[in-house]
Q: What sequence folds into this?
């Protein structure tokens, strides 16, 4: 038996896209315990809600995170709309759903690239990010922003899609689907990918449930838990089933996220076909009073938005519970008993978004 | 389980053009409607200060007395909220991002004196072209003025 030692992992580490620190208690290359430590990029965004007008706050809320920014803006708007009893027009609901699914596609493609990078498959990493670039181009052409869309407002959306843009979106979706099929062969079947991911970080359905994990991380262990099933925005009118896998290892997480990109493509096509004509937004009267809470399915899982107002133009309290925060206990559980060489891929497998977590 | 499943993609990529461009050496085409930076038609501005009050990052400064409108390009988050709030619709968000810089770049626009008091001068007077004075140039001009005052 070797001597126990503590290895600091992060906040600067090649596999980490964002700063998280883990103290790994290691004995003979096997991790015995992992102690997470966050707080490197706290920006006090929630506190700004007390100083910014509730309409201005949309732009601050969507800057919570650079990857799931649209979801944060939408979650905030939904919470304020619920608080003020505003009914968003149908077309705006569909537009939000379409942009949210594009946001999910770009987030998952980013993650697939980072995962390929974490197990040392550089070419696959570039291939995934090449496809992601097309998603970003679609978003820039339709919303004006590549990452931060700034199209949400309390009561609806700012921008509309015209016929040319819809045709362009459909054409690009075909191209994305075709190229992703090509990558999928490597992601699902390649021996090098399977050697690094099969049987690594296995969590059972019961464990995932007990640890309170959310999103694709939970669905990869067989937990059928997807907030989109609650039917917020236009999801209630679209036909889909959550993607789940029973294996619960890193391979299953790649599988679930890749299949979710196809699911997003199908959802966008459905939404584009069903989208009704009409208004983009409704005028919002009065000030927020009372409290409201909404749950939204972000690319990384369920995010909870809580707002509290006291009939002034500033919110009294704004709170976000982010998916990565819910997945951290699951990560610590996975790391116990893992090989030190697998720590990188295990940390990446929960799709950590520390900017969201620290706000 | 397969081996070398990526081989065909890799070989095909050898005979394709690079996906990336040599930006900034090669110019880039921004799509229509891209949110790059804010532009102002200063002669239409009425210094109502709604843009400055509503800017989420506080990047805009308006001086009513001087008729000036300033924007800190590095603080601006390109949300376009000011363009929605402007009652005269003289603010526009146009494609083209602000270039990176070592110092915070502040652009200052001063309304031409002819448009300062529309009641005093009839609308028949021709409107002069937009005047743009970067902060550095403005500071230099101010410094010269101060020196002149001292000498006097």
A:
């Amino acid at each position: 038996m070797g001597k126990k030692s503590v290895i600091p992992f992060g906040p600067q580490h090649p596999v980490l896209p964002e700063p998280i620190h883990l103290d790994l208690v290691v004995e003979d290359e096997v991790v015995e315990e992992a102690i997470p430590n966050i707080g490197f990029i706290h920006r006090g965004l929630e506190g700004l809600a007390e100083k910014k007008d509730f309409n201005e706050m949309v732009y601050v809320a969507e800057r919570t995170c650079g990857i799931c920014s649209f979801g944060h803006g939408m979650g905030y708007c939904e919470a304020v709309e619920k608080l003020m009893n505003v009914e968003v027009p149908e077309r705006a609901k569909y537009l939000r759903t379409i942009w949210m699914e594009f946001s999910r596609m770009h987030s998952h493609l980013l993650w697939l690239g980072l995962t390929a990078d974490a197990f040392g498959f550089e070419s696959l990493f570039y291939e995934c990010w090449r496809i992601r670039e097309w998603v970003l181009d679609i978003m820039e052409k339709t919303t004006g922003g590549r990452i931060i869309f700034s199209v949400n407002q309390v009561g609806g959306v700012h921008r509309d899609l015209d016929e040319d843009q819809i045709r362009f979106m459909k054409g690009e979706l075909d191209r994305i689907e075709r190229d992703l099929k090509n990558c999928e062969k490597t992601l699902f079947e390649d021996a090098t990918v399977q050697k690094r991911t099969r049987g690594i970080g296995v969590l059972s359905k019961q464990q995932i449930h007990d640890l309170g994990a959310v999103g694709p991380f939970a669905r990869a262990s067989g937990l059928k838990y997807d907030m989109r099933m609650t039917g917020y925005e236009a999801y209630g009118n679209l036909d889909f089933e959550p993607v789940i896998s029973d294996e619960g290892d890193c391979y299953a997480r790649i599988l679930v996220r890749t299949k979710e990109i196809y699911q997003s493509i199908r959802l966008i096509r459905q939404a584009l076909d069903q989208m009704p004509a009409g208004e983009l937004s409704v005028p919002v009267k009065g000030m927020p009073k009372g409290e409201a809470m909404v749950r939204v399915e972000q690319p990384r899982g369920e995010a909870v938005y809580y707002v509290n107002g006291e009939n002034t133009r500033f919110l009294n309290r704004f709170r976000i519970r982010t998916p990565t925060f819910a997945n951290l206990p699951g990560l610590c559980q996975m790391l116990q008993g893992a090989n030190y060489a697998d720590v990188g891929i295990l940390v990446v497998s929960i799709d950590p978004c520390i900017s969201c977590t620290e706000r | 389980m397969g081996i070398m499943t990526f081989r065909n993609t890799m070989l095909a990529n050898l005979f394709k053009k690079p996906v990336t461009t040599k930006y900034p050496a090669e110019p880039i085409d921004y799509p229509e409607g891209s949110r790059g930076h804010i532009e102002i038609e200063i002669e239409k501005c009425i210094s109502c200060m709604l843009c400055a009050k509503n800017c989420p990052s506080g990047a805009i400064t308006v001086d009513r007395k001087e008729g000036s409108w300033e924007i800190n390009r590095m603080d601006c988050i390109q949300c376009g909220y000011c363009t929605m709030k402007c009652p005269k619709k003289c603010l526009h968000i146009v494609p083209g991002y602000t270039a990176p810089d070592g110092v915070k770049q502040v652009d200052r626009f001063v309304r031409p004196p002819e448009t300062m008091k529309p009641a005093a001068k009839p609308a028949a007077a021709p409107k002069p072209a937009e005047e743009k004075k970067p902060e550095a140039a403005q500071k230099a001009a101010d410094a010269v003025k101060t020196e002149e005052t001292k000498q006097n």
